[in-house]
Specification:
By secondary structure, the protein is an alpha+beta fold. The chain is built from five helices and twelve strands. It folds into two domains: about 70 residues; about 150 residues, Distorted Sandwich (Glucose Permease (Domain IIA)), CATH 2.70.70. It is extended and about 115 Å long.
Length: about 260
């Protein structure tokens, strides 16, 4: 009998303990639910937080734009000062301005939409951009600058030509840029396939527009004497991924063009 009472008491204790555990767990669950409900964002709170977030983004963005504007203003002021110095015959300013325009051409080439560039067929050889016998009056590479009078790197070749001579596209491509600069004068940049671009400097006037598709042999413009030039001629560059290369490596031998001119 005593054993039965003891067992009964044990079962009663177990049952009471289980009830307490369940009750505590239920109360804690209710408390957690109430706590969670208390932290649910209302639509107004969400909107307010988003407004604060985007106000912070706008402040950072406007600060970045202002910084870029100041940098651009400084660069424009420096270029304007160099251009004025060039007109006064300052040779150091001429070199700086030439380098500045080189960077412009590089950025123009690099900024071409890749979806446009991939549509252009790769090329292995270019035709001469002028008609008739070719004569290189200033080679690619280090040379004595005809205006500065010091040794400087020449990013292309100068080709002899009469004022107003037609300049022809040496391969199919797309016009990336036309404009007037201090060193290059009136300049055209054309992109061809395989990352090859051609540059034409000192033009008299243009015959194409930016973004225009051109075919091999199409008129691009006319030879002139603008920019850093001592007389009418065509400054011609061939660039691979923006880097200047020797144009003669992409063109037929000069002897061939001379012979063709004689037999025509």
């Amino acid at each position: 009998m005593n054993m039965r009472k003891a067992a009964g008491w044990i079962l009663l204790v177990i049952a009471v303990s289980a009830a307490v555990v369940v009750s505590v767990g239920f109360s804690r669950s209710r408390a957690d639910q109430g706590h969670a409900v208390a932290y649910v964002q209302s639509a107004e709170v969400w909107k307010a937080r988003q407004l604060i977030l985007w106000e912070g983004v706008d402040v950072a963005w406007n600060a970045e734009l202002e910084q870029q504007r100041r940098i651009l203003q400084i660069a424009e002021a420096e270029e304007a000062a160099d251009v004025a110095a060039v007109e006064a015959g300052n040779h150091e300013a001429m070199i700086r301005q030439g380098d500045r325009e080189d960077q412009l051409i590089r950025s123009v080439i690099a900024g071409c939409d890749p979806s446009v560039a991939v549509q252009l067929q790769p090329i292995e050889e270019l035709m001469w951009p002028l008609t008739g016998p070719m004569k290189v009056t200033s080679p690619y590479g280090e040379r004595m600058h005809p205006i500065i009078g010091e040794e400087a790197f020449h990013r292309g070749v100068d080709l002899r030509a009469e004022y107003g001579s037609p300049i022809l596209a040496p391969a199919d491509g797309i016009v990336l840029h036309i404009g007037s600069k201090t060193a290059y004068g009136n300049v055209v940049v054309v992109l061809h396939g395989g990352g090859i671009a051609t540059v034409y400097g000192h033009l008299w006037k243009f015959a194409v527009q930016p973004c225009e598709r051109v075919q091999k042999g199409q008129l691009l413009g006319y030879v002139g004497n603008t920019g850093f030039s001592t007389g009418p001629h065509l400054h011609f560059e061939v660039r691979q991924d923006g880097e200047p290369t020797n144009p003669l490596e992409w063109l037929p031998p000069i002897e061939t063009t001379e012979q063709e001119a004689i037999t025509q």
